[in-house]
Amino acid sequence: MASPQLFSPNHPKCTLNPAFQGPLPTHNLNQKTKNLYFQYKPCFPSSSKAMIKCSTSLSSSTPQVEESSLVLEEDERPLCQIWKEIQGCNDWDGLLDPMNPLLRREIIRYGEFAQACYDSFDFDPQSKYCGSCKYQGAHFFEKLGMADRGYKISRYLYATSNINLPNFFQKSKLSSVWSTHANWMGYVAVCTDEDEIKRLGRRDIVISWRGTVTYLEWIYDLKDILHSTNFTNDPSIKTELGFYDLYTKKENNCNYCSFSAREQVLAEIKRLLEYYDGEEISITITGHSLGAALALLTAYDIAELGLILVNEEELSNKIPITVYSFAGPRVGNLKFKERCDELGVKVLRVVNVHDKVPTVPGIFANEKLQFQKYLEEAVSFPWSYAHVGVELALDHTHSPFLKPNNDFACAHNLEAHLHLIDGYHGKGERFCLANKRDIALVNKDSNFLKSEYGVPPYWRQDENKGMVRNSDGRWVLPERQRVEAHPHDISHHLEKIRKIASGSSQLQGE
User: Which of 143, 333, 432, 440 could cross-link 59 (Cys pair, CB 3.0–4.6 Å)?
Assistant: First the structure.
């Protein structure tokens, strides 16, 4: 099927947010640029052992030092043939140790979709746009140097800040602000480039949730209170209350939060699945830190409501739904974990063993406890949590590029996780950057690289901090074009979901 213009307001099917309509960027999505941090194509003959030369210095600002070599097994199969395996249909069996090179590139690719949330978010409390996205949807990937990824934004996601996670939300210190209640939380994007669709073997829908770069105080806001999801008739399926509130709460007096984050993402997924009906589709959800918790909650919700069923009469015919979770905390209890498994939600959790966030909540009762099921069912222990999915455990002390420090923020950093994935080849294998991903990216939001590499810490910022010269020659902070909060047909698609999930009391009550 030819890729339609998602932002064309005159297309009979298209009902995207008008804020994203208008002229598209003039870049050619079929032309690969040099903005990518890794190459998609294998560098070596397929299904053969190849010699990789690993540099201890990859940034252009540092001197080249001794190179070493590593013999690796390459996969001769193209991604389009094995994409379901890469997306976890067999729970990544045989793909993690040793690390499959196609899987490594896909993990990094989805990690960069999550990183895009940080790179585009306005953290500046002196800006009236603090808490919003800095870029218009139609130019989002272009502004981030990701135009050649072949994806386009279909909508932005927002959440109300009036919940009990005060250390997570960013608010402006000014009196006149873009929104007094909302924070931008992420986006939904669709693969529209025909070459990329062929490479992937399907049309991919991505949901990316924003988390926290290095600011970890939000963890102390967690009350470890489990709350029934109400997404099903089983009240024993529970998730942490703060995550649940962030996903489901709304603010009627706020345009951006008049629909909950849950309603926004479900309505958009329903619309896109109808729009691309008949195509081979995958739903991939990614997030880092608290964003990883939202990613898992979203995947469970979509699956529980039956939105991934291609044919309601054929329960086995489902659209694959995969979560690439980075440094994510536990989200729900053991019943929640078991239900995710039953629904076929595939989760690959990438963690740094020195990061504290994946160890909470559930410090005392978790999936490692032999008698957890007994505690939940017989004793009704109220603080029992379980991780979902398959864990890929990395160790930042194995990288020769990183400082061997005990800084929790560095251990939690997303760019550091992507660096570790690039160098990971399996348990006991030497660290070697397979895709030669630029090590300077590690210091984008941290001070984690060893000083001899000459990369300044926290180096990423807007040119002149966003200030521009006006027609009078004065430096000013320009006004940003206002983004409309929600597409006009969101209620229409929510009504369709309510009919599908008539037993979902929570959706009916929102």
Answer: 440
Q: Is 69 a catalytic residue?
A: no
With contact defined as beta carbons under 8 Å apart, do 184 and 132 qualify?
yes
| CA distance readout (Å), 194 to 93, 199, 320, 498 | 30, 9, 20, 33
Burial 36-47 (b: 16+ CB within 10 A, else e): bbbeeebeeeee
Burial class (CB in 10 A: 0-12, 13-18, 19+), 209: buried
CA dist., res. 510 & res. 502, Å (int)? 13
Question: Scanning the structure block, which residue is given the tokens 């901090």?
Answer: 465
Assess whether 419 carries a catalytic annotation.
Answer: no
**Which is the catalytic residue, given 59, 289, 446, 504?**
289
- Dist CA 156 CA 359 (whole Å): 30
CA distance 225 to 359: 16
What is residue 213's three-state secondary structure? coil
State yes or no: is 504 an active-site residue: no
